[in-house]
Specification:
There is one protein chain. With about 140 residues, the protein is mostly helical. About 85% of the residues lie in helices and about 0% in strands. Helix 6 packs antiparallel against helix 7.
């Protein structure tokens, strides 16, 4: 059903920038799964330039990171890992220095966001030193 809706709505958008903006708006509205599908659809396009592929990758990473922040612990780690692996896979394929910098910046921002979330969670729970150590390790990353 979601794929059908996505394909229907995507038919109205033809420009790459509009497609990326559409994915961002879906994410902002909390429609994470549809935003994910939109990002996957963008990345499956064969005619993307390297900057467009990087832009779609960053949007996908942001979508997964936001999804991680709104998920419970069992799923949260999966979303973080997917967010990081999408960036890492794109880094392995990227040859342009500027695009590499953008991807590394997104990786660093996602890592910081995860560490900050872990730190806040440790403050709330304040159950053990292990929670604090996890937060410190992630912040150092």
């Amino acid at each position: 059903m979601a794929k059908l809706l996505l394909l229907f709505l995507a038919g109205f958008l033809s420009d790459f920038d509009d497609d990326v903006r559409y994915a961002a708006e879906l994410r902002e509205r909390g429609l994470y799964r549809i935003a994910e599908l939109q990002c996957q659809r963008l990345l499956e396009q064969a005619d993307l330039s390297e900057p467009q592929r990087v832009q779609a990758t960053i949007e996908f990473s942001k979508t997964l990171a936001v999804q991680a922040l709104s998920s419970r612990p069992p799923l949260r780690d999966e979303y973080w890992q997917r967010s990081f692996s999408i960036i890492d896979n794109s880094l392995a394929k990227t040859t342009d220095t500027t695009q590499t910098i953008l991807l590394r910046l997104q990786r660093a921002l996602a890592t910081l966001e995860r560490a900050e979330w872990t730190r806040r969670e440790a403050e709330v729970r304040a159950q053990s030193d292990a929670d604090w150590n996890d937060a410190r390790t992630q912040l150092r990353e």
